[in-house]
Amino acid sequence: MGHLVTVATCNLNQWALDFEGNRDRIIQSIRIAKERGASFRTGPELEITGYGCLDHFLEADTYMHSWEMYSQIITHPDCQDILLDIGMPIIHKSVRYNCRVISYNRKIFLIRPKLWLANDGNYREMRYFTPWYRQKHVEDHILPVMIQEVLDGKQRSVTFGDAKLDGLETSFGFETCEELFTPNSPHIGLALDGVEFFTNSSGSHHELRKLDTRMRLIVEATKKCGGVYLYANQRGCDGDRLYYDGCALIVVNGDVVAQGAQFGLDDVEVVTATVDLDSVRSYRSAPSFGMQSTAVEKSYPSVEFSSASGALSGRSLEFDMTVIPTKARPLRYHTPEEEIALGPACWLWDYLRRCRAGGFFIPLSGGIDSCATSVIVHSMCRLVAEAAKNGNEQVIADARRLAGKAVEENPEWVPTDPKEFANMIFHTCYMGTENSSNETRARAKALANDIGSYHVDMNIDTVVTAVRKLFETVTGKSPQYKVHGGSQPENLALQNIQARLRMVLAYLFALLLPWVRSRPTGGLLVLGSANVDEALRGYLTKYDCSSADINPIGGISKTDLKAFIAYARDAFDMPVLNDFLTATPTAELEPITKTYVQSDEADMGFTYDELSVFGRLRKVEKFGPYSAFIKLYHEWTPRLTPAEIAVKVKRFFYFYAINRHKMTVLTPSYHAEQYSPDDNRFDLRPFLILPSFPWASKKIDEVVKSFEAKNQSLQQDKQD
Ligand SMILES: Nc1ncnc2c1ncn2[C@@H]1O[C@H](COP(=O)(O)OP(=O)(O)OC[C@H]2O[C@@H]([n+]3cccc(C(=O)O)c3)[C@H](O)[C@@H]2O)[C@@H](O)[C@H]1O
Ligand SMILES: Nc1ncnc2c1ncn2[C@@H]1O[C@H](COP(=O)(O)OP(=O)(O)OP(=O)(O)O)[C@@H](O)[C@H]1O
Ligand SMILES: NC(=O)CC[C@H](N)C(=O)O
Question: What residues does the CN hydrolase domain cover (predicted)?
Fold first, then answer.
């Protein structure tokens, strides 16, 4: 035993199309890997461009700039004497591929295109790239002239295709993200063909409770096949609704030896481990492995690699007591509540610093949703303070720009106090009407105080009344609330005026509050707070305060948000959050009378938990109304009768269908939930749907009828 090699993988906070920023972060990761003695470094999928370029992958410029950055990386003095695996898009024979490029000291050994593209859910790789269908097949790729010129000996071409890299000491195989998730992952064939190191370069996004799936696949890959698995991922918001959630990992024979963070504000996080090649060989000693290995009919094409020293480790093979293999450690997971506290908070930070706005503005209602959004901003301020205390220079520089005037007065200022920082960048606003209660107003104020936000408390009745008066003057008609005898359209219209005016006022205040405060930092981003269940049911006013610039909770269910608030109450020491948890959710858009208080769940005809169930059935299970009814028939009887279940199913699909048009203008939200109804990227549906689903409804009614007939005859039999 004792054939030790140090290897590195990383989490990089890349930004789509930020070529120079991405280049610098790649170089920084290589620098750190080398400082830690690594002789091999892998990085995230498409790291030169950023994973989320979407249709920019159709542009020739993207490919040209990728080669330009690549040339600067491999000629950089800090990027020598280390085997590099870098991700970028490449055009081969006029066809676009998602590739890994393997090089050492200005020599490119292999370009390995992705074989199995990600094309479901949030992913559309088939739209830009072609999969390399020819397994174990390679061709010559003529390199661009500008690359030939900087390469050692003016290398003209390189092997392109599905090959492995064989060195003097060991052998490498390359897997790209989705390939790990397929039934016949490349690492299986590669392991049987003698590959000991597998890399997986990913652009994989956060979804609540999803990490476990990915981690299990990585661990199981080498538990079964033996070997060293290096997982790299992007981490951060690279310009879209997704948050890539890092978790770079090194696993040896099924044991985790190194794990990077899932969330964080460090743009570059390198994870290294010193692994023992002999342990891989011992692990594979079972005869069954050997038998399958010898049965492989066609080997992978082999590309030979030799480093300057002749040994991958760059070390003498003599025993060296200073080189110690990294010990196994347990996998770390966050609870879903921690995931909500961290993921959307990091996403908000990336968004804010990258769009160069002056901060955030939120209409704060005293209800649980805008409270949750505000607590996520608080969590962001805590992360900024923590990173600043740890000396994160990028975070300090970004926070200083946002601090504006404070820094003019004190250039050495560092954001170590979350409340002080919140007061600079976070603006909350209660917009009361005659329908608002003292309780919601007081809760909003108390929360703002605990977070430290700049809080505005105002009444908007004069504006609401002005609009009502205008309508009455023009039409001669005076709409009334339902509780005052008005019809349904009158009742809705009066609610929607309040809701929509709040949106107009939000944008006015977001633009001008920094000016009022003499802060030179520019306008504020308006935050939205509609949760995933409200969106699904359409329980929101189109173009009201649910229409904002971005929404950190738009992909999170009410049930999870409540659990998050309970967690934050204790973890962030905010007892005020208890009042939000115990309050009845209400829109406060209708007058409160002795016998009537508007309540969300009564208004919607569903509990929030029921909406989560329907959300999963529709999107995750891919059920239409009939299948949803059959599933719930089995799950909910005898608690509910089939007739009651039929009513709920029809009602859900009815409201889903009539409100689907609202999803076309849903505020861009952090993607967090498998059943998100986001129309723009994730849940593609028509928005003019026949809401009664007449044929499915007939079939449901038949089942109900046959159940009732059977029940009746059973009762009859009992009586007889
Ligand atoms: N098929 C279709 N394609 C495209 N657009 C369509 C459409 N059908 C209606 N529309 C448009 O949509 C409009 C109806 O939608 P909308 O104006 O939103 O109005 P609507 O959905 O009728 O009312 C809003 C609902 O949200 C509830 N709510 C609950 C909690 C909070 C808040 C809040 O705002 O704070 C609201 C409120 O109680 C009410 O039930 C129509 O007037 C029409 O302009
Ligand atoms: N009185 C108010 N003051 C400020 N903003 C408000 C007020 N009422 C509603 N809003 C804004 O409109 C959004 C939608 O209102 P709604 O009553 O549906 O809230 P909600 O979705 O139940 O959320 P919350 O739990 O925050 O009340 C809120 O999230 C909030 O941003
Ligand atoms: N970029 C990819 O191939 C990602 C696909 C993969 N299913 C994931 O969610 O991680």
Answer: 5-277
Please state the rounded mean pLDDT for residues 565-570: 98
Q: Note if 68 is an active site residue.
A: no
Domains in the chain with CATH codes: 4-304 (3.60.110.10), 336-582 (3.40.50.620), 600-658+690-720 (no CATH)
Question: 532 and 554 in contact (C-beta within 8 Å)?
Answer: yes
CA nearest ligand 2 atom 31, residue: 363
pLDDT of residue 15: 98
| Confidence at residue 321, expressed as pLDDT on a 0 to 100 scale | 83
| Catalytic residue (choose from 99, 177, 371, 545) | 177
CA distances from 368 to 224, 447, 449, 581 (A): 46, 11, 16, 7
pLDDT tens, residue by residue, 443-477: 999 999 999 999 999 999 999 999 999 999 999 99
Ligand 1 pocket check for 381: Cβ under 6 Å: no
Protein residue whose Cα sits closest to atom 7 of ligand 1: 661
Is the pLDDT confidence value at 164 over 90?
A: yes
Which amino acid does the sequence have at 158? V
The single residue listed with the structure tokens 């301020």 is 381
* Alpha helices (H) in 527-641, listed in sequence order: 532-537, 558-571, 577-582, 600-604, 608-615, 625-636
Record the tokens describing residue 267, joined without a space: 């743009």
Q: Tell me the average pLDDT across 115-123.
A: 97
What integer is the mean pLDDT of 669-683?
93
Catalytic residue among 114, 164, 619, 662: 114
For residue 689, give the ligand nearest its CA: 1
Q: Which of 365, 492, 549, 592 to mutate to test the pocket of ligand 2 (most atoms within 8 A of CB)?
A: 365
Cβ 84 vs Cβ 72: under 8 Å = no
Predicted ipTM?
A: 0.92
The CA distance from 98 to 93, in Å, is 14
Q: Tell me: the pLDDT tens digits for 30-73?
A: 999 999 999 999 999 999 999 999 999 999 999 999 999 999 99
Comparison of pLDDT for 494 and 521, the residue scoring more: 494
Is the Cα dihedral 571, 574, 576, 580 positive or negative?
A: negative
